[in-house]
Amino acid sequence: MVFKLDDFKSFQLSEEEAASLPALDLDGEIKEIDPTTLSISKKMLKLITTGQGDYPSRSECDMAGMVALVAGGCTDLEVASVFNHYAIGEKSRENKNGYFEYTLKKAKAWVAKNKEEEPPAPDIPGTSTLMPTSVEDVKAVIEKTFPGTWDATEACGAVICQRYVSDITQPFNLNLIGNPSGSKTLVLSYFYGIGDDLVCRSDGFTAHCFVSHSPKKTTKELEKVDLLPRIKNKCLITPEMNSIFSAEGDKLNEILGIITRIIDGEGFQSDSGSHGRRGYSEPVFFTWLGATTPPRRAVWNLMSRYGSKMYFYSIPKNKNTAEEYLDATIAGRPTQEKLREVRNVMNPLMRSFKPVAWDKTKEPRELYEKIHDYASLLACLRTSFTIWADDDDYDTSSVVKEDLYRVIGLLYNLARGRAVLYGRNYITEDDLPMVLHVGMSGAEISRTELLRLLIDEEELTTTMIEEKMQVSSPTARKHIQSLKVMGLADVDAIGKSHITSCTLKEEFAWLKSSLKGKLR
Amino acid sequence: MNAEKLREMFNGSYVEDEGPAGYARHFLRHLFGSHIEDTKQFLELRFISSNHILQKFYGGVDEVLRDWGYIENLQAREYNVHYGVCPRVRKSGKITDVSHAVALWADVDYYKGQEDRRACFERLTAFKPRPSVIVSSGGGFHCYWSIPITEVSEKLKNTLRGLQRAVGSDSVHDFSRVMRLPGTLNLKNENKKEVKVVWYSS
Questions:
Q1: Which chain B residues are Cβ-neighbours of A223 within 8 angstroms?
Q2: What pTM was estimated for this model as a whole?
Q3: Residue A397 — very low, low, confident or very high, per pLDDT cuts 50/70/90?
Q4: Is A171 among the domain residues?
Q5: In the predicted model, is pLDDT for residue A183 greater than 90?
Q6: Chain B window 88-147: which residues touch A at a Cβ cutoff of 8 Å?
Q7: Across the A/B interface, how many CB contacts are shorter than 8 Å?
Q8: Which of A73, A422, A495, B97 has the most crowded CB, counting CB atoms within 10 A?
Q9: What is the ipTM, given to two decimal places?
């Protein structure tokens, strides 16, 4: 039914009546905006959250805050929300007869007038100062303070940034692998301060804490204990994954089973004698960064059999000279000071992203084909099999290779996370070396080392393997047989007693041609 | 509201199989007609989470349907979905971006007062003039009175304010106002509630 305006004539307020009513509803739809997400200076952020600043009166304090918000591009409702929920709005909440509207009007007029004068004077109360948000800024600081850690940092950033791509619903787990004290935890610590709404850090961690069944607590209490609901839409950071990977036998099996289900992203439900069925059936999106020393072969094998959803990023060994070590440790600046410098640029960067609508039209199909190649490579590297000597030859059994469907999707999501980190809503060629490195890191070190040798050499012989990997002749021959079983190399014949060789399979020739030298 | 009533409401074009997306589209079509497409204006959807706001602008009601996957993904990330009650002349949601209104509206929260949900609903359906559409927003009712396309003015604003005061609405008279979109979920509290049409005055 369509009314005529005259039907509402009796409701029309006179100008006097209208002026006596509040103009905006401070109890409106927007609830508690996080002011750290707004484009305002730290000084103004403090003013908003504490209500205290260098101003002689509350009115001037309100005016300064409002000017900053308006200049920072906030809508009326956002300003209203800030004044409704934070200390700065105390006076406007006490005084509902148009004080808020009057101040907002004045602030808008002030901003409109001062916009024409470029640049705005920095010491005028309330002038908005945009925080540094460029990824290049962060890269420069990290390369200066902790050289050699940027690539891994970028990979971690790409994982966290997946939350901003609206159609990514699959959780992603990436673990930094490196030697003890090899900067793994350091890289993760760059992200500790970016905000509780973005990351959830857990230094002590077991697989059972996702959904707890502790008999010492009531079911109600367990709801507060469960980790799974607390990491929804966040990045879980667990700097100590060794406790997971060092488990043995059935325990390891159980742990990896739980983790696999959790990373499936479809929630998790489990049963126990003390609490019956507990858990969460709704999909839970999260990302997960961990750090570990290289896992044992048994762990890799088991992960392969689970169709592992865990991805790895190997941090290259430090090749610093003694002088460089001393400069970086004893003679250089304290680590905490350098870490503070990194966080000062990292925090605003990671808080500056907003959800993006993905634009696949800008992505050439060749990029997808490359991601498919990387996924094939990873699947080959993660092949699970048993190998043994059989008379004059080697034999294998129980060969299990995972399907590519999920791997492709997850590697694509990782590339998209990197694209977001660099301010794009589409992937480019630049995003792929990191993805390839993840592909190359997804298996035990002996396998990835073998692959690197195979890429570097036209023809890989057992003698070369013996020399470069410092292994015996039978082990070198076994390695070559492994390459064959994984589907990475062509081998003519393998015997226990004679030297043999292998070449990279044709389908992986792209590793030699297009990406040789670009590997991280 | 049963399917029969909805079919009537949407001039027989309501199709149950279209699910929430179809529900939203038909509601928007009912409210805006073809005004957005005809005048090349924009329909604003505003996605509001506890710490972030995202705006998206559509050149037509049907575009919303095509983008429903995106909308559902944002809902899964706990974004509440709102739409601009007045069309926008450009891709911006400020008050200066509104030139015309197609309805008058009110937002009545029953949880604030002594009134329970049923009493509130009965009062609204008895109100004169009776709203064209009443939407259950999860915490109250949104009322809409369809009007011919009218240029926004101080006079219209004062009429809207007076109407809202008379019906016991919150003060939501700014022309840049966004309201919850039927067919989506109100995620304000732990108990998610459907935003749905509960009354249509034929």
A1: none
A2: 0.55
A3: low
A4: yes
A5: no
A6: 93-95, 104, 129, 132, 145-147
A7: 119
A8: B97
A9: 0.84
